[in-house]
Amino acid sequence: MFKWEEDHLSGDVNSINVSCGTNIQDNSLVHVAKSNLNGKVLPTIIGDNVTVGHSAVLHGCTVEDEAFVGMGAVLLDGVVVEKHAMVAAGALVRQNTKIPSGEVWGGNPARFLRKLTDKEIAFISQSATNYSNLAQVHAAENAKPFDEIEFEKVLCKKFARQDEEYDSMLGVRETPPELILPDNILPDKAPKNLQKTKTFEKVASNPAD
């Protein structure tokens, strides 16, 4: 399981079980239920290779293997998201709702929208794999010793490149674009307004002349 920054998993009154290959993204909340209207004590169970999007809330629910929970979705007590099912971003899934395999549900309250295509189902599994691979990259970077990190900084600085286009995108270009001559135009062939500008710059830099 890979948990991003600012996630909060609170198993204070019950258990949380997150299986292999699952990723829970930034600002998500996973909590459990001690009591509810049905008088049930509910853990939160998340299966293998599940993707939980940013700012989702999972409370006393079950998300089966290779399911997908979109950004900002809320799953309340007793919800079951079956394998290869998808909860759309921003959906509010009411208590004890079961989302069948191969379906996407969305809205407030969440309802059936349509069937998932084979390509979309494959994407759910691939999404979890992609995040798992990214987690390994993060782990490798975080495991580097201080000396190696400092050496890489020196290399990056040595081989860094910066050009006019980059400066322009950042809004820090020092030379106005109208004063920059293309490489294939000689100064004496430039438009008159640019020639005057170049002459003025030369005089200003050599007042004794």
From TrEMBL:
GO cellular component, one term: mitochondrial membrane
Pfam families on file: Hexapep_2
InterPro entries, alphabetized: Hexapep (IPR001451), LbH_gamma_CA-like (IPR047324), Transf_Hexapept/Carb_Anhydrase (IPR050484), Trimer_LpxA-like_sf (IPR011004)
Entry superkingdom: Eukaryota
Topology in the lipid bilayer: Peripheral membrane protein
Subcellular location: Mitochondrion membrane
Similarity annotation: Belongs to the gamma-class carbonic anhydrase family.
Name recorded for this polypeptide: Hexapeptide repeat
